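thread: overnight batch results

M.L. [08:02]
morning all. the overnight job finished for the chain we discussed friday. pasting input first so we're all looking at the same thing
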Amino acid sequence: MSNSASGNAALAARDLKHLWHPCTQMHDHDIAGKDRVPMVPIVRGEGAWLVDADGRRYLDGISSWWTNLFGHANPRIAAALAEQARTLEHVIFAGFTHEPAIELAEELVRVTPPGLDRVFYADNGSAAIEVALKMSFHYWLNQGHGEKTRFIALTGSYHGETLGALSVSDVALYRKTYAPLLLTPFLAPSPDAYEGQPGESPEQTAARRLGEMRTLLERHSLETCAVIVEPLVQCAGGMRMYHPGYLTGLRALCDEFSVHFIADEIAVGFGRTGTLFACEQAGVSPDFMCLSKGLTGGFLPLSAVLTTAGIYEAFYAEYNAGKAFLHSHSYTGNPLACRVALETLAIFRDEPVLERNRQLAAHLTRRLEPLREHPHVADVRQTGMIAAVELVADKTTRRPFPVTERRGLQVYLHGLRHGALLRPLGNVVYFMPPYVVTETELDQLVDTAIAGIVHAVAGRSGP
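M.L. [08:03]
and the structure it wrote out:
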């Protein structure tokens, strides 16, 4: 237990005096009553657990914003980081290089879908999306197609919160305030299986939505640089899931209409969907693949954009041709982050991670099955190690709870009181735990979530 000067209350007070937290209405931390959101100071992590300054433990059911793969303070990754820190912490990446960046690029090319032969580093997921969007536009410009200035995104999509990434996102909560500053994409209807027509299978929904994508491309392909999608799961949009056949068909459409296919695997890559990369389940290679989050096992910021030799060659010219891709970040190719990413990939190589994930996913499926009968649950869906429960006011009509009632917040608060980090997306309670979680810990996580759901739909937080 911590003393009073370094316990939860003291650290929270110091925090709230100066800090402004992301994706947060800071007023929630100051109000009184059941909806007050506590500020939780974490002092250490142990596997799938976080420990606060008062010694309370929280099972990390969301992998700390979907980043942590192999547990907090993983000793193998920590040792690699410490070793690299004693050697080289950073160097400019323009005109200089280092072995961790080289080796990581080689390994990423080896494990990603065929044809992705070039690697461009950035330092977070939104930055990776910015790179891919700019690179796609600039490719077409270099090829003499300056008329291609637009992008196609899916309804309900989310790709980040910098202006370019937000431009191709369609979650109103994030987008509407900044709409005057943003590019306007063409929006294609999402293949989200939850929104399928009555009696329609996920595969049939995907096929129908591909027909609508075709119509959009027939009208706008000449002005379109690329289609950008989150393969299989639209995460921040509510964990919307769809059939891999959509990706197969989209690859064919992009080829037919000469537009790029950007795969945003920032959240779904590195084993989350049951395969190392979600695109594998459709047997497709995108023109750009954006990676981050799990790339470093949750240790350090790093992102990578992989693309093809053909796209790279469109920028390769004499200096005076003005075709270079002049985009940079101060910490591009940071050696510490690259070394950590290499160790993360080595764990996939050395251990049966995906096999164990399949066992954990099957256990999670069994534990969530009873929720399908809950009177306020409209859907229980799962793709690999990502599962989601859709809470509604009326199961028959799927009428949602009013947003202002903040039912999901009650699940979050219940989780904190009972030792679990569950952070619903609106009224969607989801599970995306680290891969080191045990079946017993999954049981605890699900039991806590179910109890939280019971309290939330009753309109009270409970003890």
